[in-house]
Write a structure and sequence with these properties.
Number of strands: 16
CATH superfamily of the largest domain: Response regulator
Structural class: alpha/beta
Number of domains: 2
Shape: globular
Strand order of the largest sheet: 7-6-8-9-10-14-15
Largest sheet: 7 strands, mixed
CATH architecture of the largest domain: 3-Layer(aba) Sandwich
Radius of gyration: 21 Å
Amino acid sequence: MTLGTPFSRRALMAGAAGALALPALRPAFAQAAPIKVGVLHSLSGTMAISETALRDTVLMMVDWINGKGGLLGRKVEAVVVDPASNWPLFAEKARELLQVHKVDVTFGCWTSVSRKSVLPVFEELNGLLFYPVQYEGEEQSRNVFYTGAAPNQQAIPAVDYLMSADGGEAKRIALLGTDYVYPRTTNRILRAYLNSKGVSDADIMEEYTPFGHSDWQGIVSRVKRFAGEGKRAAIVSTINGDANVPFYRELGNQGIKAEDIPCVAFSVGEEELAGIDTKPLVGHLAAWNYFMSVDTPANAEFKKMWRAYIKNDKRVTNDPMEATYTGFRMWAQAVAQSGTTAVDKVREAMYGQKVEAPCGYTEQMWQNHHLSKPVMIGEIQEDGQFNVVWKTPDAIKAENWSPYIPENANRKK
């Protein structure tokens, strides 16, 4: 198989990283050219643990929309490429999708460094990218729709929870992150927020490690010492990719239990926990806008669709998958509403689009290219699922320009 050609459902089931022509579909499509959907996710390298499921989700949605007759009477085809967790390669693959394959829309990226790598390409060529992962904010592009959380929809509510009576009344916070833009910017926001709540810099620990980091013994030992200095402590994790596996293993090895030093993660969901022994991690936390365990009719339908498509009951759903699903639904609605796949027309039709999302809330796309989303805190269970212990009563509109970044004080919201 070669990369960059339309991808079939059977190729997905084989776990292929390349792409094949889609098989003949049941609906009778017009003879017009297919609508092409680019898929720009790492299928190899350190981020494959997280991003492969997002490729699968886009392919599921392509299958779904074709089963409903396609869009505008045309078949939808997926074009899959593998940027292989290589940030400069993301830009090359984005250009390939737009200039060679001439895709009408792209769903892709996980890390902020990959998104920032492709952003100039999408702006130069007037492409359209749907980005489905929580991020640090401090960005707004007319060529990107951000369907994951901004800091006020994840990071800040998570810290509020840790400092609350229900969350253990933490007075000291260890900020542990992978060394790139998302963790560093998010933690800059969190440090300023903690300072505003009376937490001194002396009560904030901050450490960064490279992608794929595996030796966590020293850092976890330092966290234990930090937590043993007389004040209740908690960990806020912006660790990304497969480094989470040895990190959580080391928490277990050193006996760090949730009741002693709770850890809340922003990039660990059901998919990442699938490869970890979760028994020592029971009670540790994650902050997302969706969990697989959410009991809503929309989530039941989402999980039913996923299981029917993937044909593997062990494969889970997670927050970025839900954000991909929601973004795809909104894009399809915007195309149908505008009667075209032309980027400028679809962009205008995207504003105000609503979806009854699997999280159980109505999510809406705003003029700042961000969704309103709920916030949920989940506790890890032995089976690798999360029990939701706290959630917002309503969906929250994103603040992509944080008020805790001084440079944003005079920025027009």
